[in-house]
Design brief:
The structure is a homotetramer. Chain A is globular and about 45 Å long. Chain A has about 140 residues and is of the alpha+beta class. The first copy, chain A, starts with 6 loop residues before the first strand and ends with a helix. Chain A is built from three helices and five strands; from the N terminus they run E-H-H-E-E-E-E-H. Chain A has one domain (about 5-140): Hotdog Thioesterase (Thiol Ester Dehydrase, Chain A). The first copy, chain A, has a five-stranded antiparallel β-sheet. Helices cover about 30% and strands about 40% of the residues of chain A. Chains A and B meet through helix 1 and strand 2 of A and helix 1 and strand 2 of B.
């Protein structure tokens, strides 16, 4: 998908569906998280590496736009990219695709905190560099 | 809470928590839905009445802002109100409160469709009137 | 319900339903937990009191039998009682009812561990006494 | 894993974890379902093929035994096999493994119903043959 270099694969579970016969909207935020975790694994050594560095991150804001429903057993690609990193904050963009059709898009913003003090803390330079490199690459 | 006349009561379940020890962000969208369903029951005869009228509604957009974490067993109030109704579209606003502290806010927008044709359809006049009355009352 | 003195109230959420139009089976185990937490609050000072006493408990086994489906917006009673307490182990029984009809029943068994060492530990006497009293009462 | 010829791959999501830092017990029943769906896809043309044949199936009973906790980001194998098929009923067995360690096991029993009448109906011969073949093979 244009503008994205990375995607996680999601298969819609029966438990994800609701009585309208489509994937319930709350699942998209779980899928965003799955894509974010896999993105960080690919480009930044994994979310666990962040936690090992004494950093926790919290979701500050979540947004999703639902364009087309997803159904049971659909194979989806959840594209993810870093939109920006500034100090203790970073934002991810997402796009949910089924066979070339965009089903949804969205973004989440996050704050990094020191795991001990729970006070905002800058993201480590190695992380910023890793994800900036990934972002530049996807902007080509 | 100022500007809201209605709230659903939510108690944070252990299953809602995550390994950070707080309620996982995806749950807030389920709580928004619980509040929306109870709001429609109070002011518009219930979501089932809509379905009985041959109308289904779909979530078009979801947004949440997380200000303070919620914890296991917290008693929350999820305030909800209709923000606007225009043709086939309507929007709800939400505010999640614990003992006077705002933990989160958000909104969702929705589209009404004919349950048979799945084409956009105006909300019935009785629904618009009911929720407009509720909205005016809350704007006093 | 005969044999039960306690029940938690559950309202089936739209997010709980699946594409068969009924509440998904995995939700019953969340409802069992909700009933267990409320039971412990009523008879034993709450689950948090256990955690404050340095005790964590883990689910060792879960069982459910589904007799009739539950639907969106159903008001359910999830009856719960202590079946037995022996050393570090205890078991709860459950029965899910809608207007006098039994929809499901089940049980869960649990092990108590010291929160620091994670080794099995006897449940405190005050807890055993509290829940035994509750059990005797329900056996009348 | 001995006795099993098929396994689904599951990666523990952050949303699956709870405040004890482990995967919440209700998720195992979702994972069992994921394995069941993939098993039916492999050996019986998929769950959708059943639905296309006018058959719905309902979970009648679920059981799980939790031996060791699963953690965030764990890669699990959820082994699944048909235990038996008799008339309108069938049962699956499961075993959840992480790197050779059994974390949990369980089973689910199911009833097939005619999608229109919702009355119990025998599973089609082609399905019984497919899964019996799979079972025989795994019994070697």
């Amino acid at each position: 998908m244009e503008g994205f270099d990375f995607a996680a694969q999601i298969r819609v579970r029966f438990a994800d569906t609701d009585a309208q016969g489509v994937a319930h909207n709350s699942n998209y935020f779980v899928w965003f998280e799955v894509a974010r975790v896999e993105f960080l694994e690919r480009y930044a050594g994994g979310y666990q590496k962040l936690r090992d560095a004494g950093i926790e991150s919290f979701v500050l804001e979540s947004h999703a736009r639902f364009l087309q429903p997803a159904f049971f057993d659909d194979r989806l690609l959840v594209h993810a990219r870093i939109h920006s990193v500034r100090g203790a904050r970073f934002r991810f963009d997402y796009l949910v695709e089924r066979d070339g059709t965009v089903l949804a898009d969205g973004w989440t913003s996050h704050g990094a905190v020191d795991a001990t003090t729970l006070r905002p803390t800058r993201l480590p330079a190695w992380l910023v560099e890793s994800v900036t490199a990934a972002t530049s690459s996807s902007a080509r």
